[in-house]
Structure formats: structure tokens, C-alpha cells
């Protein structure tokens, strides 16, 4: 460990590990029975969700003529994730995911059932519709991080990109079928209330299949800590700390928020485009919404082939440019055939973008923080949708739908040069599998209690002057490892009297947090640590000391202890 000479920091990433090119095939995950059953049940449930989305939005256009209230339907769907995404991820990383999923599926079933009953009796109001849509999406917000986090438990790591794309295909198959079915059901009844009520009732029933699959699932977690579970507040803090020191995770979040903020104009204003500009009813709106879904399915089935030839950055640039064109066409060209063709391409671009960003998040984080990262991603994604829907809704109400679409197109065009500087899935990916510690816990005179702290860990290195330049570069790579793992402070100091003596110090909030940081170390993190240790020249490995905060005690207690 200590006498192998200089190590170049570029060796941190393992050779050739790009899962976007190594996947066994676009449909390989469907050969796994559990994933296939989950996928089918999810698709059926998503059909019901998209039927409800169309029926709910159209019912709002019947209950009110306010563009703002209509646009707020999208906000009601997105806002819960904005507030609950990280909390949902923390919950999914702490508690047993199968039970959580069953609970929140039951919550959504109940919320939609109440809405169906109120709609059948004709007593639903715009505020009530918004409130129950909000309640439904609280369940969705709390469900989704755990739902996505179980994917690595169902398929091999190399098939994660295909599994993510298939999940997107599931949602978009539903988007292709659901809106048209929702619009057809509303049109089939003389009363919009009765048609919407039946849509809500069917959606409520669609959750039952997912609950049944989850009930039968015998789960085997990939990562199971031997330590006590984190408390909720601590789990949220550690998730935010990881995000702060993980640039590979920050890039997808920034791009997801920016993209969805501008593209939300399509989703939130499409009902108004159908009704006011194209002069079509619920069925026409359903067809337009379904066109997005058909295009998205086309994108999902061909995305694996496209990724082999075009890297992620170029894909995202192309889809952003296409959405600028889409927004302008919806604003200026009021021909149904043109709108349908344009929305087919928009659906293709949507799946391409969101699947790429989702995969980049899933491949950028280790198992212990997986659901929190996905929760943060969903929070960012839906935050852009919610905020954008309000902005474009206000512009549409005070000016016109056309003005709102033009503003969003101009904003997206201006954002493209800035977003192109944030790279996604660039280069080789680190090995994030947990590193199995081979050495025992530190030998201490008195083993601290789990809550004792703060804890300062001090490591002394002896670095020859000729190795100092390499050491200074590699040790600062280790800084991010310490901070992501739970350290609240880190520093590297050089002895002024002995320049070859360097001391690394980092502080943990408690002894339990320090033990967790050891457990959380990945293979890539360990490789960085080994590079640092390899530059040490001294007797054995670097000296490590563990210091617990010395609390003040009463004199009689000190005397009795002695």
C-alpha cells in the first residue's frame, strides 16, 4: 500500500465502463419475470393516470374559463414533488421500500376514489378538483423515488439504461392511449361530470394491480446497512450534503429544471390550444395529448440505437432546439394536422431528454443515497414544471396563449448555449459498488457511544518533496469523498517546521456518522484513498487518530471516575 511510487490521479475511473453502450438490448429487462410483471401493472396504472389527467384538465375547462386555474392543474400535479421530493427519497432510503410503495399506492387509490364520487354527484368545484388532484400527487411524489430506486434490485446494472427507457416507454404508451381514451369517455356521455367520474373511477381501480404485484414481491435489498437507520432530518441533511459535493449529480439537475421550466408551456397550455386555437373539444385535446405519447413511445423504442451513435450532450442540444420549433409552431400555426405531427416529434424529444437525464442520475450515485438522489431529481424536474406552468399561465391570462408560447420558445433558445456547457455522461463512469472493508474497526481504549461527537479523524502522512505536487492533487479528490460520506469539515495541513509532514483532518457529527462513512465508501472512493496512501513514505501506513469532543463534566463526576 505504501511503497509503490507515484500514482496519476487520472487512474481514478476504471477502464471502459459506459453502460449506455454495453446494455444487452432495449427489451432485455422484460425477460426478467418480476420486472415484466411490474412493468405491465405500471403501464395499466399509467393509462388510468393519463386518462385522469385529460379528464381532470378538461373538466376544469368546463368548471371555469380562467386560464390560470386551468394551468394550475399542472401545478397541482407538480407542486407536491417540489416540496416532498427529497423527503420522499430520504424516506425510501430509511424505511422498507416495498411497504412504503404499498401504502402510497393505497393513498392514491383512495384520493381518486373520493374525487370520482364527488364528480358523479356533481358537487365538485374548481378548488375541490385542484385540492384532490394535489392530494393524489402527494401520493405520487412520495411513491416515485422508491418506485424508481427498486430498478437496480430487479435488473443487472448494465441493463439499467434499458430499464429506465422501458419505464419511460410504459408511461408514454399510457400517454399515447390514456388521453385519447379519457377524451373519448368524456365525449361518450352527455354530461362531462359523468364521463369524468367514470374516468376517475377506472383510474382508482388501476392502482389495485400494482398493489397486488408489490404484495407478492419478496424483496432482497442491494444495500443493507448493519448500523441503525438514520433519523429523517439527518437523512435529508446527508442527502443534501452528498448533492453539494457531487458535480456529476448537479449537472443533470440543472438541465432537468431548465428544460422542464420552458417545456411546461406545452403541457400546461395544450388544452387551451386545442379549445381556443384549434377549436376542438375533449376528443381533440385527447388526440393532441396522445400524439405526444405516440412520439414518446417511438423515442423509447429507438433510443438505445441512437445512443450508440450520438452522445448525451448532442442529444440534449438537438431536443432543446426541436422544442423551440414546437413552441413557435403551436403559437403561429393553427392547423390540426401540423400540430399533431409537431407533437409526435415533441414526444420523441421529451423521452430522449428525460430518459437521458434520469439515467445519468441513476448511474452517478451509490446505493446508500440512491432514493434521495432520485427524489431530488424528481423534485427539480417537477419544480421546473410547476413554476413554468404558473409563469406561462399568468402570461396567457394577462395577454394570450400565443404570447406565452412565444416567451417560452425565446427563453429556451437563450438557455441552449449555457446548458451546453454542462456535460452529461461525459467520459468513463466510476465504480459505485460498495467497497467491502477488510480491516477491523479502530482499536480504542474506550469504545465511544454511537451519539458521541463531534469526532475528529486525523491522518498523518510523510510525503517526499518530489511527490508533493501529485499528492496535493489526489488528496483534494479525497476531500469530496470525505464530505460526500458525511464529514462536516475537512482540511489538509503542511507542517511549517517539517514540509514532508502533512496532516489530513475531517470532522464527523458523531461516532455513528463516522461508522456510516466507512460503510458508504465505494470502490471508486477506495481507489482514491489508495492513491493517497501509496504516496506516503514512512513506517507502515499513515497514522490515524480518532478524537472525540471533550465535554465538560462536574468535578465530583471526574473524581469518582478516577
TrEMBL record:
The keyword Amino-acid biosynthesis does not apply. CDD domains: MFS_MefA_like. The chain crosses the membrane at residues 68-90, 102-135, 195-215, 253-274, 280-300, 321-350, 370-396, 403-420. It is found in: Cell membrane. It comes from the Bacteria. InterPro entries: MFS_trans_sf (IPR036259), TM_effector (IPR010290). Keywords: Cell membrane, Membrane, Transmembrane, Transmembrane helix, Transport. Residues 1-20 are annotated as: Disordered. It is a multi-pass membrane protein. One of its GO terms (cellular component) is plasma membrane. This is Major facilitator superfamily (MFS) profile domain-containing protein.
Amino acid at each position: 500500500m505504501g511503497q509503490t511510487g507515484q500514482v496519476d490521479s487520472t487512474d481514478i475511473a476504471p477502464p471502459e465502463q459506459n453502460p449506455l453502450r454495453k446494455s444487452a438490448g432495449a427489451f432485455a429487462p422484460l425477460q426478467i419475470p418480476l420486472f415484466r410483471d411490474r412493468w405491465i401493472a405500471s403501464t395499466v396504472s399509467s393509462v388510468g393516470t393519463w386518462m385522469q389527467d385529460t379528464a381532470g384538465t378538461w373538466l376544469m375547462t368546463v368548471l371555469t374559463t380562467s386560464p390560470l386555474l386551468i394551468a394550475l392543474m399542472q401545478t397541482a400535479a407538480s407542486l407536491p414533488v417540489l416540496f416532498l421530493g427529497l423527503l420522499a427519497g430520504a424516506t425510501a432510503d430509511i424505511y422498507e421500500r416495498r411497504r412504503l410503495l404499498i401504502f402510497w399506492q393505497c393513498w392514491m387509490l383512495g384520493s381518486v376514489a373520493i374525487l370520482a364520487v364527488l364528480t358523479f354527484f356533481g358537487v365538485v368545484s374548481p378548488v375541490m378538483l385542484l385540492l384532490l388532484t394535489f392530494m393524489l400527487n402527494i401520493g405520487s411524489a412520495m411513491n416515485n423515488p422508491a418506485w424508481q430506486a427498486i430498478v437496480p434490485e430487479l435488473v443487472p446494472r448494465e441493463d439499467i439504461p434499458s430499464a429506465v427507457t422501458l419505464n419511460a416507454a410504459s408511461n408514454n404508451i399510457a400517454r399515447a392511449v390514456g388521453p385519447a381514451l379519457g377524451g373519448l369517455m368524456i365525449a361518450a356521455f352527455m354530461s362531462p361530470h359523468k364521463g369524468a367520474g367514470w374516468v376517475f373511477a377506472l383510474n382508482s381501480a388501476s392502482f389495485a394491480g400494482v398493489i397486488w404485484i408489490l404484495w407478492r414481491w419478496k424483496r432482497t435489498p442491494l444495500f443493507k446497512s448493519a448500523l441503525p437507520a438514520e433519523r429523517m432530518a439527518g437523512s435529508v441533511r446527508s442527502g443534501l450534503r452528498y448533492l453539494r459535493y457531487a458535480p456529476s449529480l448537479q449537472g443533470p439537475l440543472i438541465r432537468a429544471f431548465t428544460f422542464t421550466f420552458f417545456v411546461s408551456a406545452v403541457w400546461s397550455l395544450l388544452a387551451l390550444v386545442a379549445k381556443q386555437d384549434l377549436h376542438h373539444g375533449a376528443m381533440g385535446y385527447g388526440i393532441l395529448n396522445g400524439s405526444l405519447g405516440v412520439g414518446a413511445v417511438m423515442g423509447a423504442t429507438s433510443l438505445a440505437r441512437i445512443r450508440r451513435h450520438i452522445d448525451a450532450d448532442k442529444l440534449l442540444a438537438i431536443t432543446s432546439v426541436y422544442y423551440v420549433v414546437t413552441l413557435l409552431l403551436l403559437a403561429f400555426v393553427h392547423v390540426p394536422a401540423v400540430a399533431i405531427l409537431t407533437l409526435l416529434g415533441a414526444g420523441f424529444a421529451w423521452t430522449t431528454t428525460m430518459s437521458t437525464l434520469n439515467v445519468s442520475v441513476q448511474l452517478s450515485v451509490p446505493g446508500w443515497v440512491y432514493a434521495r438522489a432520485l427524489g431530488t431529481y424528481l423534485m427539480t424536474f417537477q419544480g421546473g414544471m410547476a413554476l413554468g406552468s404558473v409563469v406561462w399561465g399568468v402570461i396567457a391570462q394577462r395577454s394570450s396563449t400565443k404570447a406565452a408560447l412565444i416567451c417560452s420558445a425565446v427563453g429556451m433558445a437563450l438557455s441552449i448555449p449555457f446548458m451546453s456547457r454542462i456535460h452529461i455522461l461525459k467520459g468513463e463512469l466510476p465504480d459505485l459498488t460498495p467497497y467491502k472493508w477488510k480491516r477491523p474497526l479502530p482499536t480504542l481504549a474506550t469504545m465511544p457511544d454511537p451519539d458521541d461527537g463531534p469526532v475528529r479523524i486525523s491522518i498523518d502522512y510523510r510525503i517526499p518533496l518530489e511527490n508533493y505536487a501529485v499528492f496535493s492533487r489526489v488528496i483534494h479528490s479525497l476531500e469530496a469523498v470525505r464530505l460526500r460520506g458525511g464529514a462536516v469539515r475537512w482540511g489538509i495541513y503542511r507542517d511549517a517546521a517539517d514540509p514532508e509532514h502533512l496532516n489530513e483532518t475531517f470532522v464527523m457529527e458523531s461516532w455513528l456518522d463516522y461508522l456510516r462513512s466507512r460503510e458508504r465508501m465505494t470502490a471508486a472512493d477506495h481507489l482514491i484513498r489508495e492513491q493517497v496512501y501509496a504516496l506516503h513514505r514512512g513506517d507502515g501506513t499513515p497514522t490515524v487518530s480518532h478524537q472525540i469532543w471533550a465535554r465538560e463534566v462536574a468535578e465530583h463526576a471526574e473524581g469518582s471516575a478516577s
